[in-house]
Amino acid sequence: MTQPSLVTQDLTIRFGGHVAVNAVSCEFRPGELTVIVGPNGAGKTTYFNLISGQLTATSGKVLKDGTDLTAMAPSARAHHGIGRAFQLTNLFPGLTVLENIRLAVQARSGAGWKLLRRVEALTELTEKAERYLEATKLTDKAHQPASALPHGDQRKLEVALLMAMEPDIYMFDEPTAGMSLDHAPDVLDLIAEIKKDRTKTVLLVEHKMDVVRALADRIIVLHNGELLADGPPEEVMSSQIVRDVYLGKSTEAA
Ligand SMILES: Nc1ncnc2c1ncn2[C@@H]1O[C@H](COP(=O)(O)OP(=O)(O)OP(=O)(O)O)[C@@H](O)[C@H]1O
C-alpha cells in the first residue's frame, strides 16, 4: 500500500469544556478521495480547520509526508502542500478571471507578487493559467472581472485557484453548497478529474448522499467529535451504527 500523505494522530480540540474533535486518528493516501460525513455539529469543519491550520489542536498531531505541521500557520501548511478551497478569500475582485489565476500561478512559482520584468516569464505564467482556465471550463470568461461571475462560475474559479497552487492534498468543504442544480455537476466533474491524478489526496466534507456515492473511495463518519466509522462506502453506509446515528438513535444503544 502507498505511504499516507496525510496523517492525523489523536487529533483533539477543546473549546472550554466541549471536545469538538476527540482523538481522531486517520491516514489519507495519494489517489484516494475520502468523504467526511456526520450529523450537524459532528466536528467535520473543525477537523478540516485543524488540518489546514485555521485552528490549532489542543493535543495530537497533523503530519504531511512525515513532517509535523501541528504548530504551523495555514500559510506554512499551504507551502507544505495542504490546499483548501475557500470561498473567494484569495480573490482580487477587480481583476479578471485570468489575472486572478495568473497571480495564483505566480505565487506558486515562487515569484511572489512582484511585478514581472521578463516578458517570457509573464507568457509562461499566462500559458499555465490558461491551462487551468481550460480545465475548469472558464476560458470564455477569462477577461471578465472575477466579481462579475455568477455564483457557480465563482466556485469553479475557486477550484482553478486551488489547482494553480498545485497542492498534494485537496480539501473541499461542501463544494456544491448553495449551488443550483445546473452548476453542481461542473464542480463535481472537476473534483472527479483531480481525483484521477493518483498523486493527489482529496478530502471532502459533504452532506449530499448522491455526491458522496458518486465520488467517495472511502467514507469516514464523525459523530460528537469522534471517529465512528471508516471504510469503503458500501460497508460504512450499510453499517448499523451509522444508520442509527443518521436516524437519530443514541450510539450507546447501538
Ligand atoms: N470556535 C468554536 N468555539 C466553540 N465551539 C465551537 C467552535 N467551532 C466549532 N465549535 C463547536 O464544535 C462542534 C463541531 O462543529 P463543526 O462546525 O465542526 O461541526 P460540523 O460537523 O462541521 O457541522 P455542520 O455539518 O453543521 O457544518 C459544534 O458543537 C460547534 O458548536
TrEMBL record:
Entry-linked Pfam families: ABC_tran (PF00005), BCA_ABC_TP_C (PF12399)
Keyword Nucleotide-binding on entry: yes
InterPro entries: AAA+_ATPase, ABC_AA/LPS_Transport, ABC_transporter-like_ATP-bd, BCA_ABC_TP_C, P-loop_NTPase
Keywords: ATP-binding, Nucleotide-binding, Transport
Gene3D superfamilies named among the record's database cross-references: P-loop containing nucleotide triphosphate hydrolases (3.40.50.300)
All residue ranges annotated as the ABC transporter domain in the record: 6-249
Record has Cell membrane as a keyword: no
GO cellular component, one term: plasma membrane
Any GO MF annotation of the entry: ATP hydrolysis activity
Name under which the protein is recorded: Branched-chain amino acid ABC transporter substrate-binding protein
